[in-house]
Write a structure and sequence with these properties.
The structure holds 2 protein chains of 2 kinds. Chain A is an all-alpha fold. Helices cover about 80% and strands about 0% of the residues of chain A. Chain A has 2 domains: about 30 residues; about 280 residues, Orthogonal Bundle (ABC transporter involved in vitamin B12 uptake, BtuC), CATH 1.10.3470. The longest helix of chain A is centred in the N-terminal third of the chain and has 27 residues. Classes of the chains: A mainly alpha, B alpha/beta.
């Protein structure tokens, strides 16, 4: 009996649990109020951003602040093309536009390391924001654009699909030799070179894949805002939040990133409605406390607890 | 198998190697010896493509490899174990070894190669779940050698395997190199510990200030007056 039990927990649980969650997620919007669906969509958006950010930045340690650029490009693809094309096509275009942008910028920037790379990616987001602004002011003569909007339920299912695809990609990368190779690049690029890893090639492809999902998320979420302008689409919060959420939850674990995105989005929602004046102050304090006391994020708690339990057993 | 023809190499504007030529034949074990800062590591880095020669050519298995990027050279069958081993510190021993088999053809056979590596270094099997940073210096060097072996190299290059290690561990590592050679591996070894290197190898090159000053049979070099005076303290 114990053997079947452990086999069940080893195989059935990890397979069944996601399945149940997906089914639940698929039928649940029928029973929810619109406000709840909007807030779930928000969580989905940050989940997609955080998990896709961590596909590249998690193992390599290249802290990218270009998420806003890729997310914003997706938003603008919808704003420009959303009229004529189907929702699905627009989302795919949004993803590919960001993918291409990441390939191009990756070719020129991934030789930079550490802080220099981070500053470059931050500059990239700002550069694109100002370029779009310049274009809108001087060429199209309007700053903002109206976006064809989709209803919350449609956005919900689109975001759910993007989140699931992002998770599948993250899971695949983490469990393949490429995930291990990205980790190796994060530890020592020289040693990674020695064992036959195409360091620059792999970095660029991983960067572009993570950008694809950000672009797709942007293209989807654009339909929720009805009006956008460059400072909405390329808001630097979209760059900083995924980093914070990943660190808050635990950079190395996918479930950590999911929890991080969920908790921080809900926390922001709660704080902004209960303490509208002290919202940012409280949010900041909580983030500082997490970094100070849980340098490995929430997943660090679990690892600490198993360590304590083991020690207790030994004693 | 490996031909180095009149290589010059430099880091930026600082020249390190002048007109260096070397040969390594199939199944041979060759030592490149010399004092600190003679240019030995630079030579290995040039062969594995981390550094491109300013002049001269490199050939491996009849193909030019000067200017080829390092990952392609590794894919062609050159394993380079850098000085100090440089394992990935925050990855486990097993992950480090698996990473050694990153190249496509070897990745599929990694389970088989892994058991061979564990036979050479049983300690690595015992430590397989540990992070590489928790290993001792000797174990790190063994891990690096094991990782190199996972790529099933045709030419195995060791940079200063004895560096900073206790004599008894150095002896063990050289025993491993001898064993590998016995199985038909082609080896190029770079060493400051000249006696050890010349004892294990069949031929040797002596590098001084970026130039090859002596070459020949290892036994002959061990008897050479210059080598005895300058390096062996006799």
């Amino acid at each position: 009996m114990p053997t079947t039990n452990s086999a069940a927990s080893k195989w059935l649980f990890p397979l069944l649990l996601p399945f149940i969650i997906i089914i639940l997620a698929a039928i649940i919007p029928r029973f929810l109020r619109p406000y709840t669906i909007i807030s779930i969509n928000n969580i989905f958006m940050y989940m997609a951003l955080t998990v896709s950010w961590a596909i590249f930045s998690g193992p390599t340690g290249y802290i990218s602040l270009a998420s806003a650029a890729f997310f914003g490009i997706g938003i603008y693809v919808t704003a420009v093309l959303g009229d004529g094309l189907s929702f699905l096509t627009v989302i795919a275009f949004g993803g590919f536009a960001s993918f291409l942008l990441a390939l191009l910028t990756g070719l020129s920037s991934l030789r930079l390391r550490g802080m220099y790379f981070t500053i470059f990616t931050f500059g990239l987001s700002e550069l694109i924001r100002h370029s779009v602004l310049w274009w809108e002011v001087n060429i199209t003569r309007t700053v903002g654009r109206l976006v064809v909007s989709a209803d919350n339920i449609t956005v919900y299912y689109a975001m759910l699909t993007i989140v699931l695809l992002t998770l599948a990609m993250a899971y695949f990368v983490n469990n393949s030799k490429y995930g291990l190779a990205l980790l190796a690049i994060g530890e020592s690029e020289e040693a990674a070179d020695h064992i036959g890893i195409n360091v620059n090639g792999l970095k660029i492809v991983a960067f572009a894949i993570s950008a694809f999902f950000m672009g797709a998320a942007g293209a989807t979420m654009a339909t929720r805002w009805t009006y956008i302008d460059p400072s909405i689409a390329f808001n630097s919060l979209f760059s900083f939040m995924p980093v914070l959420m990943a660190i808050f939850g635990g950079v190395r674990r996918i479930y950590g990133q999911i929890i991080g995105a969920t908790v921080l989005t809900l926390l922001a929602d709660m704080l902004i409605t209960t303490f509208p004046y002290y919202y940012n102050l409280l949010y900041g304090i909580i983030l500082v406390a997490v970094i100070l006391f849980l340098p490995e994020g929430l997943t660090g708690i679990r690892e600490k607890m198993t360590k304590w339990r083991k020690r207790a057993l030994v004693e | 198998m490996l031909k180095v023809n009149n290589i010059n190499a430099a880091y930026g504007k600082i020249d390190v190697l002048w007109d260096v030529s070397m040969r390594v034949a199939e199944k041979e074990i060759v030592a490149l010896v010399g004092a600190n800062a003679a240019g030995k590591t630079t030579m290995l880095n040039t062969i594995s493509g981390l550094l491109h020669p300013g002049a001269g050519t490199l050939e491996f298995l009849g193909r030019r490899i000067d200017g080829t990027p390092p990952y392609q050279i590794a894919t062609m069958g050159i394993s380079h174990v850098p000085e100090g081993g440089k394992p990935f510190p925050d990855m486990t021993v097993l992950e480090n070894l698996e990473m050694g088999a990153y190249i496509n053809e070897t990745w599929k056979k990694r389970a088989e190669t892994l058991s061979q590596v564990y036979e050479f270094f049983p300690i690595l099997k015992k430590r397989s779940g540990q992070l590489a940073r928790t290993l001792s210096g000797g174990e790190r060097q063994m891990l690096a050698m094991g990782r190199g072996l996972m790529a099933k190299p045709r030419l195995f290059m060791f940079d200063e395997p004895s560096y900073g290690l206790a004599p008894i561990i150095v002896k063990e590592l050289f025993e491993f190199i001898r064993l590998l050679h016995g199985q038909g591996m082609t080896i190029l070894i770079v060493e400051q510990n000249i006696r050890h290197a010349l004892e294990v190898s069949s031929r040797g090159y002596v590098l001084e200030n970026g130039r090859i000053v002596l070459e020949g049979e290892s036994i002959g070099l061990l008897d050479n007056d210059h080598v005895r005076k300058a390096y062996l303290g006799l």
